[in-house]
Specification:
Elements lengths: L3 H9 L4 E7 L5 E6 L8 H13 L8 E4 L5 H11 L3 E4 L12 E2 L7 E9 L3 H12 L3 E10 L4 H7 L3 E7 H10 L5 H11 L14 H7 L3 H13 L3 E5 L4 H11 L5 E4 L9 H15 L2 E8 L3 H9 L11 E4 L15 E5 L11 H13 L3 E5 L9 E4 L18 H6 L5 E4 L1 H4 L4 H19 L1
Helix pairs in contact: 1-2, 2-3, 6-7, 8-9, 10-11
Bound molecules: 5-bromo-uridine-5'-monophosphate.
5-bromo-uridine-5'-monophosphate binds next to strand 16 and helix 15.
């Protein structure tokens, strides 16, 4: 038979405890997070668990067995099957039709019921459950708990006269995990601190500087951008959302000295012409040393994107240093951008965007693993190996009345650890475009240095 430790390590593999930094319902930050529901996904483990729990108990004392909903329901069921003690089911809320019963199953008043709980923390919610069961005329003397978080729950219940049996305590679990090399001494210390009721200090992960990023981002476009940033002491990208070639070139003459890249939506230029629009733009880019970022947001299958990228009127592949692309069509759809860099759209700045946490994580996985991708556009932190581009930056406004949401440079450098800010109307709509560009450049650089 396996030891209790071996059994726990099997359970741990199901992902029931995570270590890191978690905000609990109470708002308190915890260095670990426990969720025992995955135990029910492995029938062999669930059966062993039932037997481990039963072994600790004076079984003759109990007429009934009841799990606290929901995590302990399968545990109580398994214990009932192994011990032949009948199960009753406690509802979370009394149903508002039919019998209005809070407890389902066959029982009589005065029977003694064993309560089963997955995790005990403060014990307060268990006390409420006990009350509800006792109100039905059922006696409760014992509670069996799989994991004691050691935050006073056991003591509270014992002070009210209940016997509390716990299979594992968090300290015991941490010790086993430390012995197996799953936890560092630092982590153990932090957990002990937390259990002793001290305020836990989490190390703030330092953001990487442009010099650090130069070491880890090896895409040639990332290297160029980072070098320009350091040289020009700028992280500003101007979004040139103007609609004629003249406006575009005038704007670039003014902002060129202050930016690392110019972001275009080339399809909104009404008099686009490769010779008259792109050639002078390329000249200005080399004169002022910045890159061209075409914000095309490709979102189709690889073959179509390849055509959109290299054919048509705009022939983006002829002139853009890097482009933006959605990752909605999957990893392979990005293969066609071989000769440029790609910045993947991981989340959007507009109200009601569908880029929720799950989408962002999957999108980031594609971005990190695809060799053509060196960055992400996002309103959230992204993995260090990507460069983060953040639009929706404005010093004066909080929105545009059309769904755009703005943050300050300070916010995006501090909270998101962005690398490059993208500013459109904050600059090109300003009365003094050059001064506005300089202001954003300085604000962006100061915010970057402060965030280091
Ligand atoms: P603004 O004028 O600073 O609001 O312009 C922002 C630019 O960034 C604009 O060209 C958008 O198309 C672009 N953008 C954005 O605002 N939000 C996003 O999530 C993405 C791009 Br992706």
């Amino acid at each position: 038979m396996e030891t209790k430790k071996e059994f726990f390590l099997e359970c741990y593999k199901l992902g029931i405890i995570k270590f890191g930094r978690f905000t609990l319902k109470s708002g308190i930050e915890s260095p670990f997070y426990v969720d025992l529901r995955p135990l029910a996904s492995d029938p062999k483990i669930l059966k062993s668990l039932a037997n481990y729990l039963l072994e600790m108990l004076p079984l003759d004392n109990f007429d009934l067995i009841c799990g606290v909903p929901y995590a302990a329901l399968p545990m109580a069921t398994a214990m009932s099957l192994e011990s032949y003690i009948p199960l009753i089911i406690k509802r979370k809320e009394a149903k508002d039709y039919g019998t209005k019963r809070l407890i389902e199953g066959i029982f009589t008043k005065g029977q003694n019921c064993l309560l089963v709980e997955d995790v005990i923390t403060s014990g307060k919610s268990l006390l409420e459950t006990i009350d509800e069961v006792e109100n039905e005329g059922i006696d409760v003397s014992d509670i069996v708990v799989v994991l004691d978080r050691q935050q006073g729950g056991k003591q509270l219940l014992e002070s009210r006269g209940y016997n509390v049996h716990t299979l594992f305590t968090i300290s015991e679990v941490c010790k086993m995990l430390q012995e197996e090399g799953h936890l560092t001494d630092d982590e153990i210390e932090r957990i002990q601190d937390f259990l002793n009721g001290n305020n836990v200090k989490f190390e703030e992960k330092k953001r990487l500087s442009y010099e650090d990023k130069l070491e880890i981002c090896d895409h040639s476009v990332a290297q160029k951008l980072l070098k320009i940033a350091v040289e020009k002491r700028s992280n500003l990208i101007v979004s040139a959302d103007v609609t004629t070639t003249k406006e575009l070139l005038d704007l670039v003459e003014k902002v060129g000295p202050h930016i690392v890249a110019l972001k275009t939506h080339i399809d909104i230029i009404s008099d686009f012409d490769a010779d008259n629009t792109i050639l002078p733009l390329k000249d200005l880019a080399s004169k002022y040393n910045f890159l061209l970022m075409e914000d095309r947001k490709f979102a189709d299958i690889g073959n179509t994107q390849e055509l959109q990228f290299s054919m048509g009127v705009f022939k983006i592949s002829n002139w853009a240093d890097f482009v933006t692309a959605q990752v909605i069509a999957g990893y392979d759809s990005l293969d066609c951008f071989r000769n440029v860099g790609v910045v993947a759209i991981l989340s959007m700045s507009s109200t009601g965007t569908l880029t929720d946490l799950q989408y962002r994580e999957q999108a980031a996985n594609i971005a990190v693993s695809h060799p053509n991708v060196f960055g992400g556009v996002s309103q959230n932190r992204i993995p260090d190996e990507l460069l983060l581009f953040t639009p929706g930056v404005n010093l004066a406004d909080s929105g545009d009345g059309k769904g755009q949401q703005y943050n300050t440079p300070e916010h995006v450098f501090n909270k998101l650890q962005t690398d490059f800010i993208i500013v459109g109307r904050g600059i090109y709509k300003s009365d003094d475009v050059e001064k506005a560009a300089l202001n954003y450049k300085i604000a962006g650089w100061n915010a970057y240095e402060k965030s280091l």
